[in-house]
Amino acid sequence: MFPDAYIFMVQERLKRRLKRICAEFLPQNVLVYIYNSYDIVGDLAILRLTDMSRKYVSVIAEAVMNVHKNVRTVLVQTGPIRGGFRLRKLECVAGENKTTAVHRESGCAFFVDVEKCYFSPRLSHERMRIAKQVENGEIVVNMFAGVGCFSIIIIRQSNAHKVYSIDTNPTAVQSMRENVRMNRVYGKVAPMLGDAREIIEKRLRHVADRVLMPLPEKAHEYLPYALLALKKTGGWIHYYDFEHAGKSENPTAKVHSKVAERLESLTVKFEIPFGRVVRTTGPN
Ligand SMILES: C[S@@+](CC[C@H](N)C(=O)[O-])C[C@H]1O[C@@H](n2cnc3c(N)ncnc32)[C@H](O)[C@@H]1O
User: Fold this and answer.
1) To the nearest 10°, the Cα dihedral for 110, 111, 116, 122?
2) Index of the ligand 1 atom closest to the CA of residue 127
3) Are residues 222 and 258 in the same domain?
4) 52 domain-assigned
5) Helix, strand, coil shares of the chain as percentages rounded to 5?
6) What is the pTM of this model?
7) Which residue's CA is the closest to the ligand 1 atom numbered 18?
8) pLDDT tens figures, 46-63
């Protein structure tokens, strides 16, 4: 006999497999062309479709709404995530025509417009993992904060003193302010609009016990500014990067060497005690 909680978890996971939930509506030769995973953000479902599965979009959208009774809108991502703000083009294919939602995660609520701001529910485990490491009284700088998820979860889950929460996208910072209000962390999470490099140089030199860099595209370039934000006595940097790795390669070891080389060139004393694959994207 399996406990109810385990059965519930397995059912929830199976619900996220698009091939499975479409199996009774679509022929096998179409199912092979469907991306298996999709995101649920509040009451929005966000899917990616291949050209082959595109003509079955209404059947697929209906199947998703059937399984997720709380979903009111199904969006299809029609292009890659791109640009400085990390945005994607979306098309509404079923339900109410909207791109905003309130998403709940780790006891917090986040208002997000998924067309105008970056947001991924797939980082929930990573956000909690970081929040659990934050110690009493810490000051944290989140260099690429989006709508404030890491920052707010840290404040709600730890006894951190303050999180400076920077983003260059005005809509993301406006939503972050709304999220600070909604989660009652006013004065603890400080939303800051602008480029992380400029803000740290002008206002946040040597203030932080911990710096977060959740933007793989820029982390390597911005590493000197993460170091500048750290207290002179040192602290932690959470560094994220993309790394291509063939079957025989270890992506974590590759990033380790890349970061070590960069820190050595900056003549910094450092240790890299831990690394892990947060998410896989694309083949290899
Ligand atoms: C991958 S998202 C961050 C996601 C966020 N941490 C979360 O958990 O949802 C990266 C964010 O960095 C912002 N960004 C890009 N360049 C930046 C810069 N130079 N300074 C500050 N923020 C920047 C983008 O607008 C985007 O919101």
Assistant:
1) 30
2) 8
3) yes
4) yes
5) 35, 20, 40
6) 0.92
7) 195
8) 999 888 888 888 988 998
